[in-house]
Amino acid sequence: MSTEPIKADTHFLRDTIYGLTEQIDLLTILQDLSKKIVSGFDFDQIINRFLDVVKEVVNYNACALFLYNEDLKTYRVVSSRGGPMKKFNDDVPDNKIVDWIIKEGRWTPIPNESKTPPKKFQSILPLCGMIKKLGFLFMISDQDEHCYNKTNMTILSFIADQAGIALENQNLYVQLNDSRKYINNIVESINNGIVAIDLSGEITLINKNATAILGIESGDVIGKSYREVFTDKLTKKIDSLIKKIINQGYVIETRFEHSPYKEFPITIGINASVLLDDNNNKIGIIFVFRDMLASMEIQRLLQQDEMKSEFVSNVSHELRTPLSIIKSYIEAILDQVDPEDYNTQRDFLNVVNKETDRLSGLVNDLLDISRIESGKYKISLTPVSLPEIIQSVIDNLKSETDSHNIITRIPSDLKPISADRDKMTQVFINLINNAIKFSPEGGEIEIQVIIMEKMLLCLIKDQGIGIAEECIPRIFDKFYRVDTSDTYEIPGTGLGLPIVKHIIKSHGGEITVKSELNRGSEFILSLPYGDSKQIK
Ligand code: ADP
């Protein structure tokens, strides 16, 4: 049997193994080089490593890395070795050649124009990224063209690709960092508190305003659950809001009493909405917290302003009506009524008298309010009989109406209470008069006194127009009047109830109201009773 084929096979195998070993070595080298270049996001570091690695392959004497400058629309040197950058910038290789080499995308020698020896080997290694052309490395070396071989070409094109990718990544990293900083700046400069959480409740973003508004001591809460970071009360609120948000997509909560520092409760408004990714999947929730103090103060000032203008128009109206009645009746007495007709004169003078009382009542209310505000409103307590006061007020007001049935239910054994007679009379005048005024259809007005252990309850109940639920909290504010078509014609200034409230409070009591629109109202006074110290 001939040994020739076996020999041939052995040679072939040896060559193959040798070739494979070379390939594996090359791959290992390339892997190492790649690692060197692509690790890290520092621009100078990437470039230096790239130039180092290329030097190992080509052993250039000088080189310059040109990158495309978008603003200047040309290639500029960003790094050089073996010569100053300026020199290379002035000596940019011919644009046409560069463009052709970059288009070809491979390492290419370029002609050396220099006539004087020693002859230098010049070459260009294009640098292409995944997204766009980046630039090229221009190299000058003493070596002859020997180094321009297939293996080196493979290695250099691989290195250039890696450097291109690394530079593009670095650029993206810078852009990402810039936009992160930009968004951070926006989030920090927003006046409201902003907190974002993911679906498991972990905080993914929080700005300084949020830590201030919510009273969170450390800003280092990213990655913690909001349940760990927020107070129990706020956590409960957020839990309940999350349920709503998941259904509705957003939620607006205008008032939440938050007391991170127990002594200073603050009112905050909370808006929240779901965060979605590009595919509209829910990825979290963003909360916006507003300190409502400033907006509430503005609202209060606006309300006050509105009340003042309302007051001016009410007071002018209230003054003008009795004044014009007085004037026309006096003119009639002077010009039209027979001087001998005493009866008509008397009737007219009675009208004048009543209108004068109305005027002085208004002026007194204004004076009372100003005394209350300046702290000069005084009461002087004496033992007074409540049934007597109530009866005298009813007697006086009865003449005002014939469509109301005023009834009293007062225990017969009621003892005197310690009160300011005039001021207490003013309270009942006001409340019973309101009961009459605000039941224009008539009906029953019931005044009931109930003796409790150490207090008296006085209920003044009518069947009138009632008060809308949202207006009830404001009816004791000065100048406030419910503004509806039903109340439009009913005279008043909105001063009665604040004065009443002040008088009752100065007697150590309270006033509350229950009311239902079109069903009637019930004012409830509670006053201290049977306290011997009270009765002088
Ligand atoms: P005024 O009676 O001069 O308007 P008040 O301070 O006494 O002012 O009352 C304030 C407002 O409260 C009234 O304008 C009215 O809108 C409402 N109000 C008071 N009493 C009643 C009542 N018995 N029924 C319905 N509304 C009432």
Question: Could you characterize what this model shows?
Answer:
The protein has 4 domains: 13-175, Beta-Lactamase; 192-296, Beta-Lactamase (2-Layer Sandwich), CATH 3.30.450; 304-372, Signal transduction histidine kinase, dimerisation/phosphotransfer (DHp) domain (Helix Hairpins), CATH 1.10.287; 378-528, Heat Shock Protein 90 (2-Layer Sandwich). 47% of the residues lie in helices and 22% in strands. The chain is built from 13 helices and 17 strands. It has helices at residues 4-38, 43-58, 85-90, 95-104, 150-189, 208-214, 226-229, 232-248, 293-336, 342-374, 386-398, 421-437, 496-506; strands at 62-69, 74-81, 108-110, 121-128, 133-141, 193-198, 203-206, 250-258, 266-276, 282-291, 382-384, 404-409, 417-419, 443-451, 455-461, 510-516, 520-528. Mean pLDDT is 85; it is low at 532-536. Bound molecules: adenosine-5'-diphosphate. Adenosine-5'-diphosphate binds at residues 430, 434-435, 438, 462, 464-467, 475, 480-482, 487, 492-497, 521.
Q: In the residues, how many domains can be counted?
A: 4
**Do you know the CATH topology of the largest domain?**
Beta-Lactamase
Helix-strand category: alpha+beta
Low-confidence stretches: 532-536
Radius of gyration from CA coordinates:
47 Å
CATH superfamily of the largest domain, by name, is GAF domain
| Mean pLDDT across every amino acid position | 85
Compose a concise summary of this entry.
This protein is of the alpha+beta class and 536 residues long.
